[in-house]
Specification:
Elements (H helix, E strand, L loop, with lengths): L4 E6 L3 E7 L4 E7 L23 H11 L4 E6 L3 H12 L1 H4 L2 E6 L5 H18 L11
Parallel strand pairs: 1-4, 4-5
Antiparallel strand pairs: 1-2, 2-3
Length: about 140
Amino acid sequence: MTHSHAIVWMDSKEAHVFRFNADDVERENIKAHTPFRKVHHKAGVIGAGHAALDVSFLDHIVDAIRGAQEWLLVGPAQAKQELIHHLDKHLPHVKKTLVGVEAMDHPTDGELLAYARRSFKAIDRLRPNAPIGAASH
């Protein structure tokens, strides 16, 4: 079944991906192979004081949203920005389908899916020439 929308909640250790349409939902949990660990920053050392996320983790997230016409990215801290940077550099066509990025702590799966459905309904209402009733997700 085709899922036109997706939402990704991610932090440095895992990602929860939901692909959905009005009638169906698919869920996937993705674990980072090398979860982010704080690097102790020493005086005089150049760098931000953290290690980059595992590229295979980012690629797995991209694979999980493949086929979605549009998607949202949510989560705490900087992991979202690492994914966006990865998309800018390697997969700009996937970034074009990203319709929103929001900070969000650790929601339940039900809260995350409800947030996604509300968000896409609002996005659809803002589109010009959207058919009446097309916003049912």
